[in-house]
Amino acid sequence: MIRSYLKIAFRNFSRQKSYTLLNVIGLSVGMAASLLIIQYVKYERSFDTFHARAKDIYRIQYNGWQNGQLNFESAVAVPAIGPGLKNNFHEVEAYTRFLPVKGVITYEKPGEEAVTFRQEKAQYADTSLFKVFDFKLIDGNPQQCLKGTNKVIMSQNMASRYFRDEDPIGKNLRLNGNELLLEVTGIFQDVPENSHIKFDFLISYETINARSKNESETSWSWYDFYSFVLLKPGTDVKVLQAKWDEYLLRERGEDWKKSNRKQEFVLRPLTEIHLYSNLLYETSPHELRDGDSVYALSIIALFILIIAWVNYVNLATARSFHRANEVGVRKVVGAFRSQLIGQFLTESFILNALAAVLAVAVVRISWSSFSNLTGWTIPVDFLRQNEFWLLVLLLFFGGAVLSGFYPAIILSSFKPVAVLKGKIIRSAGRNFLSKSLVVFQFVASVFLISRVLFVF
After folding, report:
1. Cα separation of 270 and 54, whole Å?
2. Total Cβ atoms within 10 A of residue 102
3. Average of per-residue pLDDT across 34-40
4. Which tens digit of pLDDT belongs to each residue from 195-208?
């Protein structure tokens, strides 16, 4: 039976080459556009999720109040926050802090010209960095590399720029001339692009402690520090926040009254920063995205698919009356309606399979250009993940059934006597549905254009 279905299907395709090509191209373009958009949305939602315990990591947001009014909301907080949380609440497993520093970093090798670059992505960092985050150290000891003063670890990319084929470990770098002499104690893998925290150099936190006379450990007014805490699994963040607020009021309330101000330190999920945070002093504000706009792109991808499927239904329905004689003859010789439905669904499955293969090819060929268009370097590994292929299968099966079922019902419903007499009756219900699909296609296209304008 299946062999017969396939034979008839390919015979019809060969007779109706233009119609077949139009359907395959229409479906494949819709699938390819949807697949690309969905991969982009997936990438935007992947920010900071590569850390094994990303859901347990929270950044401290600093809200400053003056005279009873909210004065600012900041991504940076005071350095005393981390120790305050860790030492007073058992729910806090670890904390870490970053303090940005910019300047000229130089490597001087005797007998050779100094290698000098201005660096915008350097940070002072706690030794607990590798307890909280999963940034990968490929050379050096994660427990020791940031201990002590004047220690620095650097990215693979920077190591190759400064030292080429030399072993960087143990070598010295200078920050801003003679301001700091730093010993290289480790090399870490380049920070993934889908991290909202970006850095090429990490300088030991004890270095800034020594220079600030421990103010970088105890200050409640110096708010230049990105502070993160790792909570124990299962922690109720709302309960912890309430206890933390009570602690702050108890410990800091008197100082706040004297200056008629108030400080709030709010725990915000790490995984929401890229899409749902727009505070003062964000680490990379130009890279942040609007979560609602990204969500809108998901709706756009769905509508593109629906429009492609409706287009297939409209074309198939329009062609149905040209195949009426075929249906009439097959019914006369004993074909059941279920067999005819199976035949037309088989044709739908074949067309959708061809479209899916072509869509995957288009996605792969256009991946580099599409990645550049988004402003990111989205890894091609996204196309090798099981989720991508499951999505392709879902689009294929969903499209084959949803777009093929209605035309199959229409084609198989023709009465053989009326067909063979040349009297095909177009029912009011059928005409209404066909016109409704055309109207829906037009309305969906207008909606799609409006959403695209809204997003961009």
Report:
1. 7
2. 12
3. 94
4. 999 999 999 999 99
Q: How far apart are CA 383 and CA 39, in angstroms?
A: 9
Q: Read off the tokens for 137.
A: 């150290």
pTM value? Answer: 0.85
Reported as a single tens digit per residue, the pLDDT across 64-123 is 999 889 999 999 999 999 999 999 999 999 999 999 999 999 999 888 899 999 999 999
Helix (H, G, I), strand (E, B) or coil at 408: helix
Beta-ladder partners of 154: 187, 201
* Rounded CA separation 137/370 (Å): 31
Q: Which two tokens stand for residue 63?
A: 């809200």
Tokens of 365: 């060929």
Note whether 112 and 95 are within 8 A (CB): no
Q: What burial letters (b/e) apply to 243-253, b meaning 16+ CB within 10 Å? A: ebeeebeeeee
Residue 321 has a pLDDT of 60
State the pLDDT at residue 442.
61
Picking from 126, 195, 203, the residue whose alpha carbon sits closest to that of residue 158 is 203
Rounded distance between C-alpha atoms, residue 164 and residue 153, angstroms: 16
Q: Which of 81, 70, 66, 71 is nearest to 257 (CA)?
A: 66
Give the separation between CA 344 and CA 346, rounded to whole angstroms: 5
Note the helical H segments in 116-236.
Answer: 129-132, 156-163, 205-211, 215-218
Give the model confidence (pLDDT) of 174-188 as tens digits. Answer: 999 888 999 999 999
In 3-state terms, what secondary structure has residue 50? coil
Distance CA(321)–CA(325), nearest Å, equals 8
